[in-house]
Amino acid sequence: MVIIPREKPVIENLNIYYLDIRKLFEHFQGEIGSGGVFFKSHSAEGAIFFDEDELLNGYFQEKDTILTGNSAIDLLIQADSDHNYSVSIYKISQEEIYFWSSLPSAEIIYKDLSTDFTNLDGLIKNMRSEKLTGYIDVAISDGIEGGLIFISNGEIIGGSYSWGGEKTDSSQNNLKILVDKTKKSGGIFNVSRIPIKREKVTGESKEQVSDTNLDIFAMLEEFLGVFETVVSTGKNKGAGFSSILKKKFVEKAEEYAFLDPFAAEFEYSARRIKYSGQAGEKELADGVITSVKELAEELGILSEVKNYMSLWADKYEKKIKELGIVF
Fold first, then answer.
1. Of residues 217, 245, 224, 232, the one with CA closest to residue 289
2. What is the largest CA-CA distance in the chain?
3. Strands, E, within the chain: which ranges?
4. CB count, 10 Å around CB of 170?
5. Judgement on whether residues 207 and 310 belong to the same structural domain of the protein
6. Which residues are registered as beta bridge partners of 58?
7. Nearest 10 degrees: Cα torsion 260, 261, 267, 269
8. First vs last Cα of the chain: how many Å apart?
9. How many CB atoms neighbour CB 211 within 10 A?
10. Pairing outcome for strands 55-62 and 65-68
């Protein structure tokens, strides 16, 4: 899905029939310096991000086909009147354009979080503690206003707001306005992460692996992270997540010895797992997921947790089936 700035575009709803796309970029690279050109038709959508020197990244989606990078840029630049695109141009600051150009690779990690169960202040706090690099997409319940909060390694670096423009107040003030609007009118939040490549050391060599290719620990870290977010920002936010989780692990230690906190084989802290035991993948998954399921049921939030786990389940569907996990 193409993420579009919330501010008013420089120009909107141009018909591609009348456009020379290459000359369009030449003009706006000189006119506004950096920004995004967004393409929309009844069956496809796309975007190309640019600064004054070059085209930085592109995204294209049509049904089940998704292209990014140069292949998306080439396809959109060569588009003609047969595609019936409507084209809009947005100015994006030089400070934020490189972040925007990374958004096509983002993946949703929390979907449709509602102010009925969480609040934006608490969600931002949790995303900062997770050292998120990505964004929070906020839709106010009035259906008109909203905003995007950009976070890099846990730090808020900017945003995009429906009331924004060249004369907007500071980013911090806009963020306060957005939080206040969600408190007054309610809202829906979607959190997306931009995958960061990590180094995996194998012998003396290093290979780059994306988050989606990490092992069972990454899968369980995300699982516990979703659960922690629901507990910490919902009606049980005062319960003390770490203490109630450890208490549950103590209860389950007779069945799953590695969960015994006194043995210190399995530790979950700051959204990361440290493990030094000998249990296999299935036993690890069974122990953690069974514990969370029981705890969620005791807290009266099992249905909420299951709902928020849907994206996690989709992402790790193959591994879940392989391990025979039931949640």
1. 224
2. 72
3. 11-15, 35-40, 44-50, 55-62, 65-68, 86-91, 107-114, 134-140, 146-152, 155-161, 187-193, 198-202, 205-209, 266-269, 272-275
4. 8
5. yes
6. 48
7. 140
8. 28
9. 17
10. antiparallel
Amino acid occupying residue 322: E
Instruction: Identify whether the C-beta of residue 5 lies closer than 8 Å to the C-beta of residue 135.
Output: no
What one-letter code names the amino acid at 108?
I
Residues 272, 221: contact at Cβ < 8 Å? Answer: yes
Do 54 and 148 share a domain, yes or no?
no
Residues 131-172 have pLDDT tens digits of: 888 999 999 998 889 999 999 878 888 899 998 754 444 678
Number of domains within the chain: 3
Cβ count within 10 A of residue 133: 20
Check: CB of residue 312 under 8 Å from CB of residue 274: no
Residues 194 and 157 sit within 8 Å (Cβ to Cβ): no
List pLDDT tens digits, range 294-325: 999 999 989 888 888 888 888 888 889 888 88
Tell me if the pTM is above 0.70. no
pLDDT tens-digit readout, 100-132: 988 888 889 899 999 988 899 999 998 888 888
Q: Say if CB 151 and CB 133 are below 8 A apart.
A: yes
Q: pLDDT for 183-221, tens place per residue?
A: 999 999 999 988 754 433 334 344 443 443 347 888 898
Rounded Cα distance, 312 and 107, in Å:
11
Any idea how long the chain is? 327
- Which residues fall within 8 angstroms of residue 196, CB to CB, at 6 or more apart? 133, 211
Domain of 261, in residue numbers: 198-323
Last residue of a domain, one of 49, 76, 103: 103
Per-residue pLDDT, averaged over 239-247, amounts to 85
Please indicate, yes or no, whether residues 213 and 230 belong to a single structural domain of this protein. yes
